[in-house]
Input
Amino acid sequence: MTFSEGGRIERLEQANEQVAVLAATLDKAQAIVQKLDGTILFWNSGAEALYGWSREEALGRKSHELLRSELPVPFEEIRAELLAHDNWTGEFRQYCRDGSPIWVASHWALHRNAAGEPVSVVKVNNDITELKRTGEALRASEATARSLFENASQGILTVARDGRITDANAMAGRLFGYSRGELVGMSVDMLLPGRLRGRHAGHRAAFALQPHARPMGQGMDLVALRRDGSEFPVEISLSYVGEGQGGLAMAFVSDITARRQASQEREELIARLETALAEKTVLLKEVHHRVKNNLAVIAGLLGMQGDALEDPRAQVALSESQQRVLSMALIHEYLYATEDLDRVNFGQYVQQLANELSVSYSIESDLVEVRIEAEEIDLPVHRAIPCGLILNELLSNALKYAFPNGRTGSITVRFCRLDSGELALECHDDGVGMPAGFDWRNSHSLGLRIVRILSKQIDGELALDRRADGTRFVLHFKERQFEI
Output
């Protein structure tokens, strides 16, 4: 073998190796060779892996029918372009053997023979399904974001570092009276009254150095300027958008004219109500004061009338009526002397009423001791008056009848809240007590009749405890009752 023959053989072997490498590479690519009418001539393993059709199943079939290709233009137009330019590129959807859709980026190249006649078409398809999905998701996301931006109930402006507006939504245009095209490129300072522009430029520069989401002008009354020169109060929140275009500030603007007006009207209403309430308080205090004075006058007249009578029984009756009137007057005295014009601290009232009755009946403390055990519980006036009258009758009876002929003893008045939530008013003496057969519920005594009637009025239950020494009346009633 000559040297030249050995070199030729070596070159041939190298060429065969290169062809083998190229063939292996081509077999991995999604390559299809077809006639001009689409009939498949070559179907490699890459095409099998991509579409699921075997070589035997694909050969001889038209590719656009086998793969149900949804071409962007009719197949005849693609063939015409191939004949004119020898290649065509496009993206379209196809379907695999299992029916799943797939998007491909396809490059078609026309192969001609030595005479220049078209022989076949080589198609290389790349799967871009995931890329398409990502693109569609991105476009959908961008469309959603744009829709939210455009339809937001707040005015939204994006502003570059130099203070120029780069975008604005429809609400911003309505707030300021400009079109979007007029706002874009405008200095944001022009949307502020002239007296505030210099200060705002400093604030904008500080925000650019340390951008972060925050309300603008917290604690300040912010004012914006419309195109027509009118000013209106606003509330602005700032946000910062990435590093694109050197970073953008996003301002969310709300017109708070209606809210400011409503707040002002509310404050004015509150002021009027407070004035009216103060006037009502003064009036009610005056009413209670006058009622107390009038009751005192009535009590005085009853006393004068009693002094003018010679009949001892009439004198006693007038004296008892006088004391009843004074017990009601004491309620009104408490009402005009305190801030609560419809409630009485009944514990304090019990103490004062007991003191006044002891003085009225000239009770000597060394003979009869009056003990008061009363919790400071507030009662509404429509319940305090009947309770006061009930206590007046029970305590008066004890002071008058429990200790005859200088007998000594004690009287205990209790007012408390029970564990059940009810209130209890008790008057207990250790005196002579009531006769064994005395029917107090049907007694014709005016005082006991008053006690029975008033107990029903407050939906209470009055009982006489005959087991106790002396006389012990206990009234139970609920703390809360319907208002009248």
Summary: The chain has a mean pLDDT of 82. The first strand starts at residue 31 and ends at 34. The chain is about 45% helix and 25% strand. The two ends are 134 Å apart (CA to CA).
